[in-house]
Amino acid sequence: MSVIRRHPVITFFLLTYALSWGAIPWQSFFAPGVLVAALIVVSLTEGVAGLKAMGSRLIRWRVSWIWYALALGVPLAIKFASIGLNNALGAPTAHIAEFTVWYALPMAIAINIVNPINAQLPEEASFRGWAQPKLQTTRTPLAATVLMAIGVTIWHIPLFVMPQFGSSPIEALATIAVTFWYAWLFNHASGSALLTLIAHATNGTIETSTLWQAGADTTRMTWLYTLVWCLFAIGLLVFNRRFWTKPPLPVGDLDRADARDGSGA
Predict the structure, then answer these.
(1) Which among 171, 154, 176, 150 has a CA at the least distance from the CA of 221?
(2) Model confidence pLDDT, tens digit, residues 16-45
(3) pTM exceeds cut of 0.90
(4) Residue 101, Cβ density class (10 Å: 0-12 exposed, 13-18 middle, ≥19 buried)
(5) In Å, what is the CA distance from 165 to each residue of 23, 27, 211, 251, 253?
């Protein structure tokens, strides 16, 4: 127990790997394992108060409208920029099912938000709802996010290397880049894991790998999508340097940051 209390985040990631990867022998991946691991570790190290704090971040909705706009707009902009680049490089115009009727896209986003079997809800409740602010109590946002990017990318490794999941190893770079985006949004939106959940759900709505038949167009799309996310993450690092290098912020201070960050830019 003392080891868990001294190293709660390391324990969390190790338990996450064990639970999620435990389904690999059955050619599957147990995404909710990340949430189960967080609930176990937080219960053992912080008790009911920690669980309440974790839950409060997941339902924290009273933030400026600008963060909602960015949570929805940035992932869609990345998707469409990548699709546009692929079209410019010779791919045929893709049919996007989420635009068949006006309500298809918001419905798909809503389903991603509430479906506990999908990765979005378990990931955001755990990674941003607990691990990110926990790491930031003793580290700068940059150092904390680098550690998060490593831990999250390792968790995704089976998805990148097992052919049944349809992902490519190059997408590990996109995972790293998007981790920096979620960390930036989480901190600026007053520690709201709800906002990162919306962003994550939106990002997973349009499955770009299915827009073209397997071949050069799909492969190019994967590389372009990864490139655009990496460029966006680099932009966040370069143009918001002061945020990434600010001193560690106690979790309680982040949770009370609405007046400072939630309504500003």
Answers:
(1) 171
(2) 999 999 999 999 999 999 999 999 999 999
(3) yes
(4) exposed
(5) 13, 9, 16, 36, 40
